[in-house]
Structure formats: structure tokens, C-alpha cells
Amino acid sequence: MERAARNRPAKPGGLGILAVAGAAVTLAIVAAWLMAPKTGISPAAVDVSDWFDAEFLSSSTSFRDGQRWLYVCQLLAQTLFLLALVVGPLSRRLRGLLTGRAATRPALYGVAVAASLLLALQTVGLPFAIASHERAAEVGLSTQGFGAWFVDWLLATVIFVAIGSAILMGALWLARRFGARWWIPGAAGVIATAVLITWAGPAVLSPIFNDYEELEEGPARTDVLRLAEATGVDVGGIYRVDASRRTTGINAFVDGIGTTKRVVLYDTLIAGLPANQRRSVIAHELAHAERNDLWRGLLWVAIVCPLAVLFVALMGDRLAPGRASSRGLPEALPALVLAIAIAITAIQTVGNGLSRSVERNADVRALELTDSPGALIGLQRRLAETNLAQPDPPGWSQFLFGTHPTTDQRIGLALSWQRGERPR
Ligand SMILES: [Zn+2]
């Protein structure tokens, strides 16, 4: 029965794949729109030169322009590399190398091909990552030397290759076991993995890169506890992270679900921030905890996942050297990875839109909790300055990559609040 399923000649045409892709993106957009919190306040228009001096505006613009183009070039290089493995002469050589041998021991060859492929993909991105770090070090944003940075890169690569290979092996196994319908258990597997990584990540992955310590008694901890009481939120753990070993930037975030739920403050934020700005950050983070924003994100992923994995399955079949006859075999891996990359890029773009709404809502909630728009404005100016962020990045970049509203929008929101606008 397995065999029959795998050899079924049914091969989706390009139009079928396009229809699934269209349905997946439409569902992602509609779900994001329905799940986005409605804040009811629109940010006032802001002239950034009222808030930042010309020197900062020009240095942040030139720094961020360069970083952005390095990132775009990295994505292009990695995409071209995958395309070369899928359609070019390299793909025929790879297939010749794997056909026959690999089919007899798909698991062994699968691991080897998956790991080499992901390692090569990381390596193609390495020159861009190096250039990006060098530029950050040059402007004083990164406090790491090349050696320490490279050790981080190696660790991140090991984790990426290990988790990525495990996921690809799971996909191949499901494709061999369930044939054309592998996307159904595949989608369930992706959802389970997303929940597992969100839960285990803060406890298992994050400590590989940084030290997390229970936040000591002091004004910052008192702020967290007071605001948690005011909102009736169980924040879970309260941690400080030694972010200063890499960066001069300031930040805070909520992470984890269930037993690993926590609020994490950068040590850079605890040390050098006026009390009202510190409370503004903490109120923003508690708003995420209060509104279960991590669960909101996971739910959205779960809704989008089945159609996205169906797209990956169809596109993978379409691009694989032997079409559906390669399904589940190591030779199908480059096509599968390319299909996954396309799906992730599209989904992330829509997901970033949802993230921006969620972030704007957390800002509004922070304003409700602190009633201190001046602190939010001061904080946004400081965040932009310490992170050398461009206050008004180009629209295309914000649309594709922006996870938060831009600095000028966040200042504009505080100005609207100052003028008496309130959520309806
Ligand atoms: Zn946030």
C-alpha cells in the first residue's frame, strides 16, 4: 500500500501549485487580520528631524542601508545556490551520485545529504554575515571580536544543521511512509515542533549563547512585580541576560510557554535607563504576557501550517529530479529545502504584519499602564540611538522584514496618546 501511494502517477500541475500557494497566502492574511489586536489609535505623523539630529539620521541610514543590502544579497546568494542544486548541471551530478545507492539506504544517505546541504547553505551566507558583523563592530554596536563572533556562528550553525536535518529526515520518512499524503502528518509535526521549540528554547537553546540569571532584588524587579500585579499577569520567571557581552543595544522580551514562561531584561537595559523608561519597557513586555501573544503566534502558525506544508509537498515533488518518484529519497532534498525556503519567506512576510500589530498593541497597553507617553518617546529615541536603528526605514524593507512598528510610528503613537486619543 505504501508503495502504491508513492508510485501514484498523480503529479500536480503548475496551476494546482499556484492555487495552493494562493490559498495559503490568503488564509495567512485573513487569519492575521482576524487575530491582530485592534488598537483603535492611529499614530500621528512624525517628522524624524524633530526628534533626531542630522548626524544620527545620516549615520543610522548609511549603517542600516548597508546591513539591509548585505542581508538581501545573502538571501539571494542562498536562493541561487539552492536553485543551482535543483535545476542546474549540479543537480544532475548530485542525482547521479545518489540514485541507486541512496535508494537502498535512504536514511543514512538522507542524513548525510541533509546535513551537507544545510551546512553548505550556512557557508554560502558566511561572507555576508562576516561583513555584517564587521560593520556592526566598526560603529561600536557589536562588542565582540571576530573570534568570539565566529564561535557564536559555529554554535548557531551546529544547532541549525542538527535541528534542520532532523526536520528534513522526518519529512523524508513521512513521505516514504505516507506517500503523497505526507503533508497531513507533516503539518502536525511542524506544529508540534513549533510548540516544542517555543517551550524548550528558553531553557535549552538560549543558555548556549548567554547566561540567564534570576533578576536580583532591585528597582527593575520591583517594577516587574508591581506591573504584574496591576495586570493580574503570571509572568513566570524574571531573568536578566548578559547581552552586554555582544552588544551595546538595549532590549527586553518575553519568552517561553507554560513552565518556561519568562520575562527577560538585557543587562544593558537594567543598568542605564531612567526609571520611567524602564517601566515603559517592562509594561510593554507584560502586555505581551497578559495577552498571551506567544500563544497567539503559535495559533496563527497552526492555522497556516497545513496549506503551507501541502505547498511544500507539491512544490518539492514538482522540483525534484525524478518528480514524484524521488519522493522521500535523499535526491529530493534540495528541491524540498528550496520549497521550504519559499514557503517560509512568504509566511514570515505575512507573520511580520501580524507581529507589528501585536507590538503596536503592546505599546498602547504600556501607555494605559504607565500613562507616560513622554517615557515611551524617550525610550524610543534611546532604543534607536543605542541600536543605531533607522527611525524611518524604507517601506519595502519594513513590509518584508519589520517585526515592530518603525521608531517614527511608535513616537507618533505616543504623541496621539498625549493628544488625548484613547482606544475605542
Ligand atoms: Zn514587544
Measured between the Cα atoms of the first and last residue, the distance is: 58 Å
Total domains, how many? 1
* Number of beta-strand segments: 4
Q: What structural class results from the helix and strand content?
A: mainly alpha
Residue share in β-strands: under 5%
Low-confidence stretches: 1-10
Widest β-sheet, arrangement of strands: 1-2-4-3
Overall mean confidence score, pLDDT: 91
Rg (C-alpha, Å): 23 Å
The biggest beta sheet is recorded as: 4 strands, mixed
Helix/strand order, N-terminal first = HHHHHHHHEHEEEHHHHHHH
What does this structure look like?
With 424 residues, this protein is mainly alpha-helical. The protein has one domain (2-7, 60-418). 71% of the residues lie in helices and 4% in strands. It is built from 16 helices and 4 strands. The chain has helices at 2-7, 14-35, 54-87, 89-98, 101-104, 106-138, 146-178, 183-209, 219-231, 267-271, 275-290, 293-319, 333-370, 373-387, 395-401, 407-418, and strands at 212-214, 237-241, 252-255, 262-266. A 4-stranded mixed beta sheet has the order 1-2-4-3, sandwiched between helices. Strand 3 and strand 4 form a beta hairpin. Helix 3 runs antiparallel to helix 6 (106-138) and helix 12 runs antiparallel to helix 13 (333-370). The chain is globular. The protein starts with a helix and ends in a 6-residue tail after the last helix. Mean pLDDT is 91; it is low at 1-10. The site of zinc ion has 4 residues, from helix 11 and helix 13.
